[in-house]
DNA sequence: TTCTTGTCACCTAGGTGTTAATAT
DNA sequence: ATATTAACACCTAGGTGACAAGAA
Protein backbone atom coordinates (compact mmCIF):
# COMPACT_ATOMS: atom_id res chain seq x y z
CA UNK A 1 0.00 0.00 0.00
CA UNK A 2 1.04 3.56 -0.61
CA UNK A 3 0.48 6.73 1.40
CA UNK A 4 0.70 10.20 -0.17
CA UNK A 5 2.95 12.56 1.75
CA UNK A 6 1.90 16.18 2.34
CA UNK A 7 -1.69 15.22 1.59
CA UNK A 8 -2.97 18.27 3.49
CA UNK A 9 -0.99 20.58 1.20
CA UNK A 10 -2.12 18.72 -1.92
CA UNK A 11 -5.72 19.04 -0.72
CA UNK A 12 -5.29 22.77 -0.21
CA UNK A 13 -3.95 23.19 -3.75
CA UNK A 14 -6.54 20.85 -5.21
CA UNK A 15 -9.34 22.86 -3.66
CA UNK A 16 -8.14 25.94 -5.55
CA UNK A 17 -7.39 23.99 -8.74
CA UNK A 18 -3.74 23.01 -8.81
CA UNK A 19 -1.57 24.45 -11.57
CA UNK A 20 1.89 23.24 -12.53
CA UNK A 21 4.27 25.32 -14.58
CA UNK A 22 5.74 23.73 -17.69
CA UNK A 23 8.81 25.26 -19.35
CA UNK A 24 11.05 24.44 -22.25
CA UNK A 25 13.93 23.52 -19.93
CA UNK A 26 11.70 21.54 -17.56
CA UNK A 27 10.16 22.56 -14.24
CA UNK A 28 9.79 20.56 -11.05
CA UNK A 29 6.36 19.95 -9.57
CA UNK A 30 5.32 21.69 -6.41
CA UNK A 31 4.15 20.14 -4.21
CA UNK A 32 6.61 17.35 -4.94
CA UNK A 33 5.04 13.92 -5.38
CA UNK A 34 6.22 11.92 -2.37
CA UNK A 35 4.97 8.64 -0.94
CA UNK A 36 5.50 6.23 1.91
CA UNK A 37 5.36 2.59 0.83
CA UNK A 38 4.26 -0.42 2.88
CA UNK A 39 4.08 -4.16 2.36
CA UNK A 40 6.91 -4.78 -0.08
CA UNK A 41 9.07 -7.88 0.07
CA UNK A 42 12.17 -6.37 1.71
CA UNK A 43 14.54 -8.58 -0.27
CA UNK A 44 12.93 -8.24 -3.70
CA UNK A 45 13.80 -5.66 -6.35
CA UNK A 46 11.28 -3.06 -7.47
CA UNK A 47 11.19 -0.28 -10.03
CA UNK A 48 9.22 2.84 -9.09
CA UNK A 49 7.92 5.14 -11.77
CA UNK A 50 5.39 7.83 -12.59
CA UNK A 51 3.43 8.84 -15.63
CA UNK A 52 0.73 11.39 -16.41
CA UNK A 53 -2.59 10.76 -18.12
CA UNK A 54 -5.08 13.35 -19.39
CA UNK A 55 -8.02 13.86 -17.05
CA UNK A 56 -10.36 14.70 -19.91
CA UNK A 57 -10.40 15.43 -23.60
CA UNK A 58 -10.53 19.19 -23.23
CA UNK A 59 -8.38 22.19 -23.83
CA UNK A 60 -8.87 25.02 -21.34
CA UNK A 61 -8.43 28.74 -21.54
CA UNK A 62 -8.12 31.60 -19.19
CA UNK A 63 -11.33 33.49 -18.38
CA UNK A 64 -11.39 37.04 -19.83
CA UNK A 65 -10.02 39.68 -17.51
CA UNK A 66 -12.72 41.71 -15.84
CA UNK A 67 -12.26 45.21 -14.57
CA UNK A 68 -11.53 44.12 -11.02
CA UNK A 69 -10.04 40.65 -11.32
CA UNK A 70 -6.54 40.52 -12.76
CA UNK A 71 -6.73 36.78 -13.13
CA UNK A 72 -9.90 34.88 -12.44
CA UNK A 73 -9.89 31.63 -10.58
CA UNK A 74 -11.85 29.42 -12.91
CA UNK A 75 -11.46 27.93 -16.36
CA UNK A 76 -13.35 27.90 -19.61
CA UNK A 77 -13.34 24.97 -21.98
CA UNK A 78 -11.58 26.09 -25.13
CA UNK A 79 -12.33 23.02 -27.18
CA UNK A 80 -11.10 19.53 -27.78
CA UNK A 81 -7.70 18.47 -26.49
CA UNK A 82 -4.59 19.03 -28.60
CA UNK A 83 -2.87 15.96 -30.03
CA UNK A 84 -1.50 13.82 -27.21
CA UNK A 85 2.13 14.37 -26.22
CA UNK A 86 4.65 11.51 -26.26
CA UNK A 87 3.59 9.34 -23.31
CA UNK A 88 6.78 9.44 -21.34
CA UNK A 89 7.51 7.78 -18.05
CA UNK A 90 9.77 8.88 -15.21
CA UNK A 91 11.67 6.14 -13.37
CA UNK A 92 12.69 7.04 -9.86
CA UNK A 93 16.48 7.42 -10.16
CA UNK A 94 17.10 4.92 -7.33
CA UNK A 95 15.38 2.18 -9.39
CA UNK A 96 15.87 -0.69 -9.17
CA UNK A 97 16.25 -1.13 -5.42
CA UNK A 98 15.21 -3.59 -2.73
CA UNK A 99 11.86 -3.30 -1.00
CA UNK A 100 13.63 -2.64 2.30
CA UNK A 101 15.39 0.37 0.75
CA UNK A 102 12.17 1.84 -0.66
CA UNK A 103 10.22 1.35 2.57
CA UNK A 104 12.73 2.74 5.04
CA UNK A 105 12.20 6.35 4.02
CA UNK A 106 9.90 8.63 2.04
CA UNK A 107 10.24 8.18 -1.71
CA UNK A 108 10.48 11.59 -3.37
CA UNK A 109 10.09 12.35 -7.07
CA UNK A 110 11.87 15.69 -6.83
CA UNK A 111 13.99 15.03 -9.91
CA UNK A 112 10.91 14.77 -12.11
CA UNK A 113 10.45 17.76 -14.42
CA UNK A 114 7.58 18.86 -16.64
CA UNK A 115 8.11 20.40 -20.05
CA UNK A 116 5.99 21.60 -22.94
CA UNK A 117 8.79 21.00 -25.44
CA UNK A 118 7.64 18.22 -27.74
CA UNK A 119 11.25 17.72 -28.88
CA UNK A 120 12.69 17.51 -25.35
CA UNK A 121 15.66 15.18 -25.16
CA UNK A 122 16.34 15.46 -21.43
CA UNK A 123 13.90 12.69 -20.60
CA UNK A 124 11.42 15.08 -19.02
CA UNK A 125 7.69 14.52 -18.94
CA UNK A 126 6.06 16.24 -21.92
CA UNK A 127 2.64 17.80 -21.33
CA UNK A 128 0.31 20.10 -23.23
CA UNK A 129 -0.14 23.47 -21.57
CA UNK A 130 -3.76 24.32 -20.72
CA UNK A 131 -4.66 20.65 -20.30
CA UNK A 132 -5.48 18.74 -17.12
CA UNK A 133 -3.45 15.75 -15.99
CA UNK A 134 -3.59 12.98 -13.42
CA UNK A 135 -0.23 11.80 -12.05
CA UNK A 136 0.02 8.04 -11.59
CA UNK A 137 2.46 6.06 -9.49
CA UNK A 138 3.53 2.56 -10.51
CA UNK A 139 5.38 -0.12 -8.58
CA UNK A 140 6.96 -2.83 -10.70
CA UNK A 141 8.20 -6.04 -9.12
CA UNK A 142 11.40 -7.20 -10.82
CA UNK A 143 10.60 -10.84 -11.40
CA UNK A 144 13.75 -12.98 -11.11
CA UNK A 145 12.22 -15.77 -13.24
CA UNK A 146 13.62 -16.19 -16.74
CA UNK A 147 10.20 -16.02 -18.36
CA UNK A 148 9.24 -12.97 -16.34
CA UNK A 149 7.66 -11.27 -19.35
CA UNK A 150 4.76 -13.69 -19.10
CA UNK A 151 3.92 -12.45 -15.64
CA UNK A 152 4.22 -8.74 -16.44
CA UNK A 153 0.50 -8.29 -15.87
CA UNK A 154 0.61 -9.41 -12.26
CA UNK A 155 3.97 -7.86 -11.43
CA UNK A 156 2.95 -4.23 -11.16
CA UNK A 157 0.53 -2.11 -9.22
CA UNK A 158 -0.73 1.39 -10.02
CA UNK A 159 -1.73 4.02 -7.46
CA UNK A 160 -3.72 7.14 -8.26
CA UNK A 161 -4.24 10.07 -5.90
CA UNK A 162 -6.92 12.31 -7.32
CA UNK A 163 -5.85 15.21 -5.12
CA UNK A 164 -2.66 15.47 -7.20
CA UNK A 165 -4.49 16.40 -10.40
CA UNK A 166 -3.41 19.65 -11.97
CA UNK A 167 -3.60 21.92 -14.98
CA UNK A 168 -0.37 22.39 -16.91
CA UNK A 169 0.29 26.09 -17.56
CA UNK A 170 3.12 28.28 -18.79
CA UNK A 171 2.11 31.04 -16.37
CA UNK A 172 -0.17 30.88 -13.36
CA UNK A 173 -3.81 31.69 -14.01
CA UNK A 174 -5.24 31.64 -10.49
CA UNK A 175 -3.60 34.17 -8.24
CA UNK A 176 -4.47 32.15 -5.16
CA UNK A 177 -2.41 29.28 -6.53
CA UNK A 178 0.51 31.66 -6.95
CA UNK A 179 0.13 32.87 -3.39
CA UNK A 180 -0.08 29.33 -2.00
CA UNK A 181 3.02 28.33 -3.94
CA UNK A 182 4.89 31.35 -2.62
CA UNK A 183 3.72 30.61 0.91
CA UNK A 184 4.65 26.94 0.87
CA UNK A 185 7.61 26.48 -1.50
CA UNK A 186 10.93 27.35 0.22
CA UNK A 187 12.47 28.38 -3.11
CA UNK A 188 9.85 31.09 -3.50
CA UNK A 189 10.61 32.62 -0.11
CA UNK A 190 11.90 35.74 -1.82
CA UNK A 191 8.35 36.62 -2.85
CA UNK A 192 6.79 36.29 0.56
CA UNK A 193 5.24 39.46 1.81
CA UNK A 194 6.06 38.78 5.42
CA UNK A 195 6.14 35.75 7.63
CA UNK A 196 5.64 37.03 11.18
CA UNK A 197 6.49 33.58 12.58
CA UNK A 198 10.17 33.38 11.84
CA UNK A 199 10.91 36.71 10.30
CA UNK A 200 13.12 38.15 13.05
CA UNK A 201 15.14 34.92 13.06
CA UNK A 202 15.83 34.79 9.34
CA UNK A 203 16.12 38.50 8.80
CA UNK A 204 19.47 39.70 7.54
CA UNK A 205 19.97 43.46 7.24
CA UNK A 206 21.65 42.99 3.86
CA UNK A 207 18.64 41.39 2.18
CA UNK A 208 16.43 44.01 0.64
CA UNK A 209 12.88 42.77 0.01
CA UNK A 210 12.62 44.68 -3.23
CA UNK A 211 10.44 42.30 -5.16
CA UNK A 212 8.24 41.70 -2.16
CA UNK A 213 7.60 45.38 -1.75
CA UNK A 214 6.87 45.66 -5.45
CA UNK A 215 4.55 42.68 -5.39
CA UNK A 216 2.74 44.10 -2.41
CA UNK A 217 1.85 47.29 -4.23
CA UNK A 218 1.03 45.40 -7.42
CA UNK A 219 -1.41 42.73 -6.29
CA UNK A 220 -4.78 43.83 -4.97
CA UNK A 221 -5.85 40.28 -4.09
CA UNK A 222 -5.00 39.36 -0.53
CA UNK A 223 -3.25 36.06 0.05
CA UNK A 224 -5.04 33.18 1.76
CA UNK A 225 -4.35 32.47 5.39
CA UNK A 226 -1.78 29.76 5.01
CA UNK A 227 1.37 29.21 6.98
CA UNK B 1 40.29 -1.82 -16.93
CA UNK B 2 40.06 1.55 -15.22
CA UNK B 3 41.39 4.95 -16.15
CA UNK B 4 41.89 7.72 -13.59
CA UNK B 5 40.27 11.01 -14.59
CA UNK B 6 42.13 14.30 -14.07
CA UNK B 7 45.37 12.39 -13.78
CA UNK B 8 47.39 15.51 -14.67
CA UNK B 9 45.88 17.37 -11.71
CA UNK B 10 46.43 14.43 -9.37
CA UNK B 11 50.07 14.31 -10.51
CA UNK B 12 50.49 18.00 -9.83
CA UNK B 13 49.14 17.60 -6.30
CA UNK B 14 51.09 14.40 -5.71
CA UNK B 15 54.32 16.10 -6.66
CA UNK B 16 53.75 18.63 -3.88
CA UNK B 17 52.49 16.02 -1.42
CA UNK B 18 48.71 15.90 -1.55
CA UNK B 19 46.81 16.86 1.59
CA UNK B 20 43.13 16.22 2.24
CA UNK B 21 41.17 18.04 4.92
CA UNK B 22 39.27 15.93 7.42
CA UNK B 23 36.56 17.51 9.57
CA UNK B 24 34.08 16.35 12.14
CA UNK B 25 31.15 16.87 9.76
CA UNK B 26 32.99 15.28 6.83
CA UNK B 27 34.86 16.90 3.94
CA UNK B 28 34.89 15.96 0.28
CA UNK B 29 38.13 15.10 -1.44
CA UNK B 30 39.68 17.44 -3.93
CA UNK B 31 40.55 16.41 -6.53
CA UNK B 32 37.50 14.16 -6.63
CA UNK B 33 38.26 10.52 -7.34
CA UNK B 34 36.79 9.87 -10.78
CA UNK B 35 37.35 7.00 -13.19
CA UNK B 36 36.41 5.76 -16.63
CA UNK B 37 35.69 2.05 -16.75
CA UNK B 38 36.18 -0.35 -19.67
CA UNK B 39 35.50 -3.99 -20.33
CA UNK B 40 32.51 -4.70 -18.12
CA UNK B 41 29.73 -7.04 -19.18
CA UNK B 42 27.10 -4.43 -20.16
CA UNK B 43 24.23 -6.58 -18.88
CA UNK B 44 25.75 -7.70 -15.57
CA UNK B 45 25.35 -5.95 -12.23
CA UNK B 46 28.33 -4.43 -10.44
CA UNK B 47 28.95 -2.69 -7.14
CA UNK B 48 31.59 0.06 -7.12
CA UNK B 49 33.27 1.07 -3.89
CA UNK B 50 36.30 2.73 -2.36
CA UNK B 51 38.31 2.27 0.79
CA UNK B 52 41.47 3.79 2.20
CA UNK B 53 44.49 1.95 3.53
CA UNK B 54 47.45 3.39 5.47
CA UNK B 55 50.51 3.92 3.29
CA UNK B 56 52.86 3.29 6.20
CA UNK B 57 52.91 2.81 9.94
CA UNK B 58 53.91 6.38 10.75
CA UNK B 59 52.46 9.46 12.32
CA UNK B 60 53.67 12.73 10.81
CA UNK B 61 54.08 16.21 12.15
CA UNK B 62 54.51 19.66 10.81
CA UNK B 63 58.11 20.93 10.50
CA UNK B 64 58.89 23.77 12.95
CA UNK B 65 58.24 27.21 11.60
CA UNK B 66 61.36 29.00 10.52
CA UNK B 67 61.75 32.72 10.37
CA UNK B 68 60.84 33.00 6.69
CA UNK B 69 58.56 30.03 6.04
CA UNK B 70 55.11 30.24 7.55
CA UNK B 71 54.42 26.64 6.72
CA UNK B 72 57.12 24.38 5.40
CA UNK B 73 56.50 21.95 2.60
CA UNK B 74 57.87 18.75 4.07
CA UNK B 75 57.04 16.39 6.90
CA UNK B 76 58.77 14.93 9.93
CA UNK B 77 58.00 11.48 11.26
CA UNK B 78 56.40 11.95 14.67
CA UNK B 79 56.39 8.29 15.64
CA UNK B 80 54.36 5.17 15.17
CA UNK B 81 50.86 5.34 13.72
CA UNK B 82 47.87 5.90 15.99
CA UNK B 83 45.45 3.00 16.45
CA UNK B 84 43.75 2.19 13.16
CA UNK B 85 40.38 3.83 12.50
CA UNK B 86 37.28 1.74 11.71
CA UNK B 87 37.95 0.40 8.22
CA UNK B 88 34.95 1.81 6.48
CA UNK B 89 33.99 1.46 2.85
CA UNK B 90 32.13 3.86 0.57
CA UNK B 91 29.77 2.32 -1.95
CA UNK B 92 29.12 4.47 -4.97
CA UNK B 93 25.49 5.56 -4.45
CA UNK B 94 24.45 4.26 -7.89
CA UNK B 95 25.44 0.72 -6.85
CA UNK B 96 24.34 -1.75 -7.93
CA UNK B 97 24.02 -0.92 -11.62
CA UNK B 98 24.58 -2.57 -14.98
CA UNK B 99 27.98 -2.51 -16.62
CA UNK B 100 26.53 -0.50 -19.50
CA UNK B 101 25.43 2.19 -17.04
CA UNK B 102 28.83 2.41 -15.34
CA UNK B 103 30.74 2.53 -18.63
CA UNK B 104 28.68 5.12 -20.45
CA UNK B 105 29.98 8.02 -18.39
CA UNK B 106 32.64 9.02 -15.88
CA UNK B 107 32.06 7.52 -12.44
CA UNK B 108 32.53 10.20 -9.80
CA UNK B 109 32.92 9.66 -6.07
CA UNK B 110 31.95 13.21 -5.20
CA UNK B 111 29.61 12.14 -2.40
CA UNK B 112 32.47 10.53 -0.48
CA UNK B 113 33.50 12.45 2.63
CA UNK B 114 36.44 12.16 4.98
CA UNK B 115 36.14 12.65 8.73
CA UNK B 116 38.35 12.39 11.78
CA UNK B 117 35.39 11.68 14.04
CA UNK B 118 35.80 8.13 15.33
CA UNK B 119 32.13 8.11 16.38
CA UNK B 120 30.83 9.34 13.01
CA UNK B 121 27.42 7.93 12.19
CA UNK B 122 26.96 9.48 8.76
CA UNK B 123 28.76 6.65 7.04
CA UNK B 124 31.77 8.80 6.18
CA UNK B 125 35.29 7.46 5.82
CA UNK B 126 37.14 7.77 9.13
CA UNK B 127 40.84 8.63 8.95
CA UNK B 128 43.55 9.66 11.39
CA UNK B 129 44.81 13.17 10.85
CA UNK B 130 48.55 13.42 10.16
CA UNK B 131 48.62 9.96 8.61
CA UNK B 132 49.13 8.98 4.97
CA UNK B 133 46.54 7.03 3.03
CA UNK B 134 46.15 5.24 -0.25
CA UNK B 135 42.67 5.32 -1.82
CA UNK B 136 41.60 2.04 -3.43
CA UNK B 137 38.88 1.41 -5.96
CA UNK B 138 37.02 -1.91 -6.05
CA UNK B 139 34.70 -3.37 -8.65
CA UNK B 140 32.47 -6.19 -7.44
CA UNK B 141 30.62 -8.37 -9.90
CA UNK B 142 27.19 -9.27 -8.54
CA UNK B 143 27.13 -13.01 -9.18
CA UNK B 144 23.60 -14.18 -10.01
CA UNK B 145 24.38 -17.76 -8.92
CA UNK B 146 22.79 -18.93 -5.69
CA UNK B 147 26.11 -20.06 -4.19
CA UNK B 148 27.80 -16.81 -5.20
CA UNK B 149 29.61 -16.54 -1.85
CA UNK B 150 31.89 -19.34 -2.96
CA UNK B 151 33.12 -17.27 -5.87
CA UNK B 152 33.64 -14.06 -3.93
CA UNK B 153 37.39 -14.30 -4.47
CA UNK B 154 37.14 -14.16 -8.25
CA UNK B 155 34.23 -11.73 -8.42
CA UNK B 156 36.05 -8.53 -7.57
CA UNK B 157 38.95 -6.48 -8.83
CA UNK B 158 40.92 -3.79 -7.02
CA UNK B 159 42.57 -0.79 -8.65
CA UNK B 160 45.18 1.41 -6.98
CA UNK B 161 46.43 4.72 -8.33
CA UNK B 162 49.49 5.75 -6.37
CA UNK B 163 49.19 9.36 -7.53
CA UNK B 164 46.04 9.67 -5.39
CA UNK B 165 47.90 9.12 -2.10
CA UNK B 166 47.51 11.89 0.43
CA UNK B 167 48.10 12.99 3.99
CA UNK B 168 44.97 13.57 6.08
CA UNK B 169 45.13 16.95 7.85
CA UNK B 170 42.80 19.22 9.79
CA UNK B 171 44.52 22.29 8.31
CA UNK B 172 46.80 22.55 5.32
CA UNK B 173 50.50 22.29 6.08
CA UNK B 174 52.02 23.03 2.69
CA UNK B 175 51.06 26.42 1.39
CA UNK B 176 51.60 25.31 -2.20
CA UNK B 177 48.90 22.70 -1.71
CA UNK B 178 46.56 25.42 -0.49
CA UNK B 179 47.33 27.56 -3.52
CA UNK B 180 46.81 24.67 -5.93
CA UNK B 181 43.48 23.82 -4.30
CA UNK B 182 42.38 27.45 -4.58
CA UNK B 183 43.50 27.59 -8.17
CA UNK B 184 41.78 24.40 -9.24
CA UNK B 185 38.70 23.91 -7.04
CA UNK B 186 35.71 25.96 -8.28
CA UNK B 187 34.32 26.23 -4.75
CA UNK B 188 37.47 28.04 -3.61
CA UNK B 189 37.18 30.68 -6.33
CA UNK B 190 36.56 33.30 -3.66
CA UNK B 191 40.18 33.02 -2.57
CA UNK B 192 41.73 33.43 -5.98
CA UNK B 193 44.01 36.36 -6.23
CA UNK B 194 43.22 37.02 -9.85
CA UNK B 195 42.64 34.94 -12.89
CA UNK B 196 43.55 37.13 -15.87
CA UNK B 197 42.08 34.52 -18.27
CA UNK B 198 38.41 34.86 -17.50
CA UNK B 199 38.34 37.68 -15.05
CA UNK B 200 36.58 40.26 -17.23
CA UNK B 201 33.95 37.69 -18.13
CA UNK B 202 33.12 36.63 -14.59
CA UNK B 203 33.56 39.99 -12.94
CA UNK B 204 30.48 41.43 -11.32
CA UNK B 205 30.74 44.95 -9.87
CA UNK B 206 28.82 43.89 -6.77
CA UNK B 207 31.31 41.25 -5.65
CA UNK B 208 33.94 42.73 -3.41
CA UNK B 209 37.11 40.61 -3.28
CA UNK B 210 37.63 41.29 0.40
CA UNK B 211 39.14 37.99 1.44
CA UNK B 212 41.32 37.86 -1.64
CA UNK B 213 42.77 41.27 -0.90
CA UNK B 214 43.38 40.19 2.68
CA UNK B 215 44.97 36.94 1.64
CA UNK B 216 47.18 38.80 -0.82
CA UNK B 217 48.67 40.96 1.89
CA UNK B 218 48.96 38.05 4.29
CA UNK B 219 50.82 35.40 2.33
CA UNK B 220 54.40 36.08 1.29
CA UNK B 221 54.73 32.83 -0.65
CA UNK B 222 53.90 33.22 -4.33
CA UNK B 223 51.49 30.75 -5.86
CA UNK B 224 52.59 28.20 -8.47
CA UNK B 225 51.90 28.86 -12.09
CA UNK B 226 48.73 26.86 -12.50
CA UNK B 227 45.61 27.67 -14.42
C1' DT C 1 53.97 24.86 20.33
C1' DT C 2 51.21 22.04 17.48
C1' DC C 3 46.89 20.56 16.27
C1' DT C 4 41.75 20.91 16.18
C1' DT C 5 37.28 23.19 16.07
C1' DG C 6 33.64 26.41 14.90
C1' DT C 7 32.30 30.48 12.41
C1' DC C 8 32.53 33.25 8.50
C1' DA C 9 32.66 35.53 3.72
C1' DC C 10 32.73 33.91 -0.70
C1' DC C 11 31.73 30.90 -3.92
C1' DT C 12 28.95 26.96 -7.09
C1' DA C 13 24.65 25.05 -8.48
C1' DG C 14 20.16 25.39 -9.20
C1' DG C 15 14.88 26.14 -7.87
C1' DT C 16 11.24 30.34 -7.42
C1' DG C 17 7.77 33.79 -9.40
C1' DT C 18 8.13 38.37 -11.78
C1' DT C 19 8.40 40.96 -15.69
C1' DA C 20 8.83 42.63 -20.41
C1' DA C 21 9.13 41.14 -24.84
C1' DT C 22 7.61 38.07 -28.20
C1' DA C 23 4.59 34.72 -30.48
C1' DT C 24 0.14 33.08 -31.81
C1' DA D 1 -6.42 39.35 -26.93
C1' DT D 2 -4.20 35.26 -24.87
C1' DA D 3 -0.16 32.36 -24.42
C1' DT D 4 4.78 31.59 -24.31
C1' DT D 5 9.56 32.78 -23.70
C1' DA D 6 13.90 34.46 -21.67
C1' DA D 7 16.30 37.33 -18.43
C1' DC D 8 16.33 38.51 -13.77
C1' DA D 9 16.41 39.23 -8.48
C1' DC D 10 15.89 36.43 -4.76
C1' DC D 11 16.06 32.45 -2.57
C1' DT D 12 17.77 27.23 -0.84
C1' DA D 13 21.51 24.11 -0.25
C1' DG D 14 25.91 23.25 0.38
C1' DG D 15 31.28 23.21 -0.81
C1' DT D 16 35.78 26.43 -0.06
C1' DG D 17 39.90 28.16 2.79
C1' DA D 18 40.72 31.92 6.36
C1' DC D 19 40.69 32.99 10.87
C1' DA D 20 40.39 33.07 15.93
C1' DA D 21 39.75 30.51 19.79
C1' DG D 22 40.32 26.34 22.07
C1' DA D 23 42.56 21.81 23.15
C1' DA D 24 46.39 18.87 23.81
From TrEMBL, chains A, B:
Cell compartments where the protein resides: Nucleus
Protein name according to UniProt: TBX1 factor
Superkingdom of origin: Eukaryota
Polar residues composition bias: residue spans: 219-227
Transcription recorded as keyword: yes
Keyword terms: Developmental protein, DNA-binding, Nucleus, Transcription, Transcription regulation
Gene Ontology MF terms in the entry: DNA-binding transcription factor activity, RNA polymerase II-specific; RNA polymerase II cis-regulatory region sequence-specific DNA binding
Main location: nucleus
A cellular component annotation (GO) from this entry: nucleus
GO terms classed as biological process: anatomical structure morphogenesis; cell fate specification; positive regulation of DNA-templated transcription
Domain T-box: 4-193
